[in-house]
Design goal:
The chain is 45% helix and 13% strand. The protein has 453 residues and is α/β, with parallel strands linked by helices. The chain folds into three domains: 2-205, 3-Layer(aba) Sandwich (Rossmann fold); 208-262, no CATH class; 304-450, 3-Layer(aba) Sandwich (Rossmann fold), CATH 3.40.50.720. The radius of gyration is 28 Å and the shape is globular. NAD(+) binds at residues 30, 35, 86, 129, 165, 275, 335. InterPro entries: 6-PGluconate_DH-like_C_sf, NAD(P)-bd_dom_sf, UDP-Glc/GDP-Man, UDP-Glc/GDP-Man_DH_C, UDP-Glc/GDP-Man_DH_C_sf, UDP-Glc/GDP-Man_DH_dimer, UDP-Glc/GDP-Man_DH_N, UDPglc_DH_bac. Pathway: Nucleotide-sugar biosynthesis; UDP-alpha-D-glucuronate biosynthesis; UDP-alpha-D-glucuronate from UDP-alpha-D-glucose: step 1/1.
């Protein structure tokens, strides 16, 4: 395939060399004459393991070159990659000037290309790190400037890179996944073909999802480093080998290093997380250590609780029915259950509540479970109902707070209700209902994680 790459910095240079090594003919486009001369003399524009050899070899084979002539590059290639910089402004926003200038070039040239080659379809892949909505903005600019139609005459695709400096070539050939954000099957398939030789899953997502992923990934990486450092500070103050602690921590692939706990939703609770988090915070305090990340964890949980409560505040004159009150599905543990805390708050504000939970029977509660309820909702017994259908008939608003399988069938038969879903049940719902997901829409619940193409 004939490919043009706009921007010969880190991502552009690595992509130029690796795509050529995979058999493509690639032209790099840049405004910097030094970078252009380097590529045209078989030299890399960056210092990075293996890329100098790749560039030299591919230059000798005639597969790569560089130019400042964007018109010639667009007219003579089928697919373009935008890899120009998106530096941060002094206010913390992205400077999109370089990307927008490139978009103007495409708007000017694609009209001409369509006149020359009426059957052409140009695919533009944005690899630069950008905020969600940027591809849409660029596509609109190109449409306005060229008179062409996105996803008919050309297409914008988000194809974020996940390359680390120092191991960029290795990362290119050994990615954890290849992410393509697209609205157009033809464009998605064109980008997918670039990575046919790579040993990784190709994930097709909507464009905005793809655009936000680099920010989510790198923020999590920063979070991991900061968490490890705060744990390390506590350990070293106690004479404990922090690396041994984290080595053991990383051996748990079921919970610690896994996708468990990584689904947005309701607040956490239970007898362990709040207690042990508080214990580590207290230990750090007693050691006179600052651990702002660890100290902020429960505050984030409180914010999620308030977010859920605020959704219900506009239904003050409605009957509220809770589907589930326990700490999690399949248990009668009510200690530090976020649903209990929510119910307690709503009762205090004068809401009319009713609760169904097949696992909870107040007459059988004993020990700390009974003490907790006696302290927080002493009149729980009069709020509990044994018949889920009776609760549904009585309630105007149904709050789903545990992921019980029986609720899926129950809610599929409900009509004319407001459903507040805190756990993302996989449900098909009657259109007469109003659905509110705490962090998602009903369309998201019912759609697949990957686009069909």
């Amino acid at each position: 395939m004939n490919i043009s790459i706009f921007g010969l910095g880190y991502v552009g240079c690595v992509s130029l060399g690796c795509l050529a090594q995979n058999g493509h003919h690639v032209v790099g486009v840049d405004v910097n004459p030094t970078k252009i001369d380097q590529i045209n003399n078989g030299r890399a524009t960056i210092v990075e393991k293996d890329i100098d050899t790749i560039i030299a070899t591919q230059h000798d084979l005639g597969r790569i070159r560089a130019t400042s002539d964007y018109r010639e590059a667009i007219l003579n290639t089928d697919l373009s990659i935008i890899a120009v910089g998106t530096p941060t402004t002094s206010q913390g926003h992205l400077n999109l000037n370089y990307i927008l200038k490139v978009a103007e070039h495409f708007g000017d040239v694609l009209r001409e290309k369509m006149d020359l080659y009426p059957d052409s379809f140009h695919v533009i892949a944005l690899r630069s790190t950008v905020m969600p909505g940027t591809c849409e903005k660029i596509a609109s600019m190109i449409e306005a400037r060229s008179g062409l139609t996105a996803n008919v005459d050309f297409a914008l695709v988000s194809n974020p890179e996940f390359l680390r400096e120092g191991t960029a070539v290795h990362d290119y050939y050994h990615p954890p996944l290849t992410l393509i954000g697209a609205q157009c099957e033809q464009a998605a398939n064109a980008i997918r073909s670039l990575y046919d030789k790579l040993p990784a899953e190709v994930v097709i997502a909507d464009i905005r999802t793809a655009e936000i992923m680099k920010y989510v990934n790198n923020t999590y990486h920063a979070l991991k480093i900061s968490f490890a450092n705060e744990v390390g500070n506590i350990c070293s103050s106690l004479g404990i080998d922090s690396h041994q602690v984290m080595d053991i921590f990383c051996k748990d692939k079921q919970l610690n290093i896994s996708n468990y706990y990584f689904k947005p939703g309701f607040a956490y609770g239970g007898s362990c997380l709040p207690k042990d988090l508080k214990g580590l915070q207290t230990l750090a305090h007693d050691l006179y250590l600052q651990v702002p990340l660890i100290n902020s964890i429960h505050r984030t949980n409180e914010i999620q609780m308030q977010r859920s409560i605020s959704v219900l505040m506009k239904y003050t004159r409605h009957n509220i029915g809770f589907l589930g009150i326990g700490f999690k599905a399949g248990t009668d543990d009510l200690r530090n259950s976020p649903a209990v805390e929510m119910a307690e708050t709503l009762l205090g504000k004068g809401f009319a509540l009713s609760i169904y939970d097949r696992n909870v029977h107040t007459s059988e509660l004993t020990g700390t479970n009974k003490e907790y309820i006696d302290q927080h909702i002493p009149h729980l017994s009069r709020l509990l109902v044994k018949d889920a259908s009776a609760l549904v008939s009585w309630a105007d608003v149904l709050v789903v707070s545990t992921k019980e399988p029986e609720f899926i069938d129950l809610l599929s038969k409900v009509t004319g209700k407001i459903i507040v879903d805190l756990v993302r049940l996989p449900i098909e719902m009657n259109p007469t209902n109003e659905y509110i997901g705490i962090n998602w829409s009903l369309d998201a619940v019912n759609s697949s994680k990957q686009l069909s193409f």
